[in-house]
Amino acid sequence: MTRSVRSRIALAVICAFAVAACRQDATRPAMPEAPLTADVHSFARPAEARVTHVALELEADFSSRVLRGRATLTIARADDARDVVLDTRGLEIARVLDQQRQPLTFRLEPEVPHLGRPLVVSLPAAGDRVVVEYQTAPDAAALQWLSPGQTAGKTHPYLYSHGQAILTRTWIPTQDSPGIRQTYDATITVPTPLRVVMSAEMPPTDGVDAGQGRRTFRFRMNQPIPPYLIAIAVGDLAFRELGPRTGVYTEPAMLARAADELVDLERMIAAAETLGGPYRWGRYDVLVLPPSFPFGGMENPRLTFATPTILAGDRSLVSLLAHELAHSWSGNLVSNATWGDFWLNEGFTTYFEYRIMEALYGAPRASMLAVLGRNDLLREMADLPPDDTKLAIDLAGRDPDEGTTSVPYEKGAALLATIEQAVGRDRFDPWLRGYFNRHAFTSITTTQFIADLQQELIRGDQALLARIDLPAWLDAPGLPASTFVPVSPAFTQVEEQARRFAQGARASTLAVGGWAPQQWQHLLERLRTRPLTAAQLRDLDTTHALSATGNSEILFAWLRVAVARQYDPAVPALERFLTSQGRRKFLKPLYEDLMKTPWGRPIARRVYAAARPGYHAVSTQTIDGIVGENP
Ligand SMILES: [Zn+2]
């Protein structure tokens, strides 16, 4: 194990040298540094030819559910490069042209599972542009086309994209690797009165009339980003400003609720800047999506995409926005170079999220989140193959989505908390800010993280190195002995109430006054393994109105208790929850729990048959594997 860490450091030193040499060579045209590690999830050969800018001109056709148009790619190439290799999946390629609109030779190679088809284009003799004319497939995995009935307003259709991890290639023919950063601009034409938003600079206009009942919107992202962060949404969207650089987009019917829930956003950025350094992306807006969005949030730069399930009515679920905002530093400013380094995105961000919550709402609230996170991690690790509980995970030949467990999030955050405890915040915080500065607008590997930590924080302190024990974190399964264990005194009181209730106390006698939502979550997680009777569950639900709560985390935790005890009266609430939102984090455990018993299986099949058309492909791919494609 020590050996593998050493070899990583050696590689980082060689690469750092190569980059310096490359930067000093002034006679060469701009061939940006190649990624350090081959990305097993991309066909690109960036050392030969590399996409540096994507210019999109697309029209959204809602009747056939396709985007159609062209992508003009700017290519940096080595002198002897003959081809540029792009990633595609399901794209219909019409023509490939050079800058003078002369055809270029191209071929689509055979499909590879998970990855799609490499598009190999012969580079033009002159010029650095390649124009791909194409259209997307109606079932493109990145794009969800919603009928009017699937939106809050019920009047207009809706489209949104989700690129992570390797779905951008289903709507843009480019080099779809997080190590290959690209700038982009876009001209998007849609039917009136729909509005387009993207993860880019957006001019404050309602678009330009394009004739035939259509309007065109223009966007520009001048900061190089990994292609998974190129994002689009089209719908009946309204906007409300929240602060000088913050605002919210959503359907008109949800605007007032969303603006009220997100009122702390500007303060949140200020807290994040204290920890991470200046916010570098200009504006920070949030798009609250229709309920089918499969994630809590997606950190698309300048425009976080968020699930409406955060609209609890009491601002109790804003930690999700703290998480997405933190990605403006960890993930977007400094990105994982490959999906095997995903913990660099999510572990840093989860740690950062807890620090923002601590700054805004106090240490007790942050500790509750950390304890809930650790409990999730321990539960999930018990069911994972040991190799998948390592931070540096091997995803070769697999869908990178398989790495999206709580390990990169919570084990990653625990590593940073452990380092913080070992050196103290006086040293840790300046290192963290420095890390974001040193690697700003680059994509890095775990190897480079280790090199940075060694050079800038550990600085030869062998005792400290031994105490942190990096190999045990990165290359060994489970949680190392050195792990910092968060404690929450507020949860001790919760555990006492859980014990009392399980032993027969009435729900009305529980001391729950002034509880934070996280305490309710913890209570319900504690009760899930207790042999409660139907009478106890009825008492709990009628006294505390759990089935009717607007807080999606509490409702989810309650429904898991109900399913564990096969409590029939909660089935209508369960059915409403599973059909009214499509967040994979909520769907997966509930369907899994249901499928474990003869009581639950018919419920799961019936509900999934009705709900499946409303879910995003990201969610159906997961739930098909649990319930079956044709339930
Ligand atoms: Zn995240």
**Low-pLDDT ranges:** 1-29
Number of strands: 21
User: How would you sum up the major sheet?
Assistant: 7 strands, mixed
What molecules are bound to this protein? zinc ion
Radius of gyration: 25 Å
What is the helix fraction of residues, given as a range? 25-40%
Sheet/helix structural class: alpha+beta
Shape: globular
Measured distance between first and last alpha carbons = 45 Å
The fraction of residues assigned to DSSP E strands is 15-25%
Q: Would you tell me the overall average pLDDT?
A: 92
Counting DSSP H or I runs of 4 or more residues, the number of helices is 19
Main sheet: which strands, in order across? 4-7-2-1-10-13-12
Description:
There is one protein chain. 38% of the residues lie in helices and 19% in strands. With 631 residues, the protein is α+β, with helices and mostly antiparallel strands. It has 19 helices and 21 strands. The relative contact order is 0.08. The N terminus is likely disordered. Strand 1 and strand 2 form a beta hairpin. The structure holds zinc ion. The site of zinc ion has 4 residues, from helix 5.
Features:
seven-stranded mixed beta sheet, binds zinc ion, alpha+beta, five-stranded mixed beta sheet, globular
Short structural description:
By secondary structure, the chain is an alpha+beta fold.
Secondary-structure map:
Elements: H1 2-24, E1 49-61, E2 66-77, E3 83-88, E4 92-97, E5 106-108, E6 117-122, E7 129-135, E8 143-146, E9 158-161, E10 182-191, E11 195-198, E12 208-211, E13 214-225, E14 232-235, E15 238-243, E16 246-250, H2 255-261, H3 265-276, E17 284-288, E18 297-298, E19 303-306, H4 319-326, E20 334-336, H5 342-361, H6 363-383, H7 406-423, H8 425-438, E21 442-444, H9 446-458, H10 462-468, H11 470-474, H12 489-502, H13 517-527, H14 534-544, H15 552-564, H16 571-580, H17 584-595, H18 600-611, H19 617-627
Parallel strand pairs: 1-10, 16-17, 17-19, 20-21
Antiparallel strand pairs: 1-2, 2-7, 3-6, 4-7, 5-6, 8-9, 9-14, 10-13, 11-14, 12-13, 15-16, 18-19
Helix pairs in contact: 1-9, 3-4, 3-5, 4-5, 5-6, 5-7, 6-7, 6-13, 7-8, 8-9, 12-13, 13-15, 15-16, 15-17, 16-18, 17-18, 17-19
This protein binds zinc ion.
